[in-house]
Description:
- It is built from 8 helices and 12 strands.
- It is of the alpha/beta class.
- It folds into 2 domains: about 1-75 and about 155-220, P-loop containing nucleotide triphosphate hydrolases (Rossmann fold, 3-Layer(aba) Sandwich); about 90-150, no CATH class.
- The strands form 3 sheets. It has a 6-stranded mixed beta sheet with strand order 6-7-8-3-9-10, with helices on both faces. A 4-stranded antiparallel beta sheet has the order 2-1-4-5, covered by helices on one side. The protein has a two-stranded antiparallel ribbon with strand order 11-12.
- Helix 4 (about 110-125) packs antiparallel against helix 5 and helix 5 packs parallel to helix 6 (about 170-185).
- The protein is globular.
- It starts with a strand and ends in a 7-residue tail after the last strand.
- It binds adenosine-5'-diphosphate.
- Adenosine-5'-diphosphate binds near residues 41 and 42.
Amino acid sequence: MLEIKNLVFGYDKNSPVLQGIDMSLEEGQVGILLGRNGAGKTTLFKIMTGALKPDGGRILFDGQDLLQMSRRQRAGIVAYVPQQLDFGSLTVYQSVLTGRVSYYTVRPSRKDLDVVDEILCETGLDKISCRDVQELSGGERQKVAIARALAQQPRVLVFDEPTGNLDIANELLIINEAKKIAHSKGIIVISSIHDLNQAMFFGDKFFFMKDGTIKYFGGPETFDEATIKDVYGVSARVVTENGEHYIQYYKEKENE
Ligand code: ADP
């Protein structure tokens, strides 16, 4: 279980960005952070991966505080999938193997190579393992970035806008892939997604950030007209069709 408790952070002491973030996720759950640009989603991810140090609060994984761990220890629990990974000129195999660097010092062991082989098979990347990553499509590269993070054998996968640079077909491919991985491997996924319909489809639990806190959270029922209006300032209703929920944006009449 991942628990974030009263996390506080400011780039500058006079204007805190995170003013007491509380949230929790169970194994295998996909949690989505929502909120306007500047709400603090990337900042929270950076704290989780150790790139920034918070001013207060705790991040517990199964009771152990991630903030007290060494970089190497934390890398065995949390892996980060960036929006764009600059692999340089490496093959798919070599790129995924770089995910194991926190496990070996000089040369990868048999175990490291076995883990990489297994992940390449699971993600279907084994068929293109000798290709240069720079020659791949955006969707394939994003898949390599996920595989690289999985090579760390993390318990928590952090995705900052995983589909930011992808076309719609690749977006769905990546979202499906990530959801499958979370549910089948019992990994906690925590992600930010701008598109509310994709967020609803991808997530199990939703956290709406506003004014430095998690203002609303819960299951799909958290998406309602009042919440969307408060967080984003736009008018939208949730439509249910054949058991599926959709967000439908609408224009308010001038005199409303
Ligand atoms: P989001 O990911 O939700 O768009 P961010 O975490 O990127 O939000 O930003 C939260 C706030 O912190 C914004 O007001 C942003 O301008 C500010 N911020 C982000 N990075 C820095 C930085 N390196 N130095 C100072 N302020 C920053």
